[in-house]
Design brief:
Layout: H1 4-23, H2 32-64, H3 67-82
Helix pairs in contact: 1-2
Length: about 100
């Protein structure tokens, strides 16, 4: 699991650099449309890699948990998804359940 951290960190940095590429390009740039398309495709690929890495780490975590701990983790994850503060500590999406 700790081996995944550098990979995830690198992926996060790549996503940030990719997003910055579009942010630094003015809409008046003649290549703006193609840059936006390239950034979008790259972002999709990076996001897919991140999702796969997170799923692999989650599976590794589940392997070391007891069935009771697995149930508890699943409940905590559900609670986080419906939390008043949302995933990143900001406001919950419209229609999210209140506690």
């Amino acid at each position: 699991m700790t081996a995944a951290h550098p990979q995830m960190q690198s992926l996060h940095e790549q996503i940030r650099a990719n997003s910055l590429k579009l942010q630094q390009t003015l809409p008046t740039d003649p290549n703006y449309s193609s840059i936006a398309s390239q950034v979008s495709q790259t972002h999709g690929s990076l996001a897919a890699q991140g999702m796969t890495q997170r799923a692999e780490v989650r599976a590794q975590v589940f392997k070391v948990l007891t069935p009771a701990q697995q149930t508890q983790l699943t409940a905590l994850e559900a609670q986080m998804r419906t939390s008043k503060h949302g995933h990143w500590g900001g406001p919950a999406p419209e229609g999210a359940a209140e506690q």
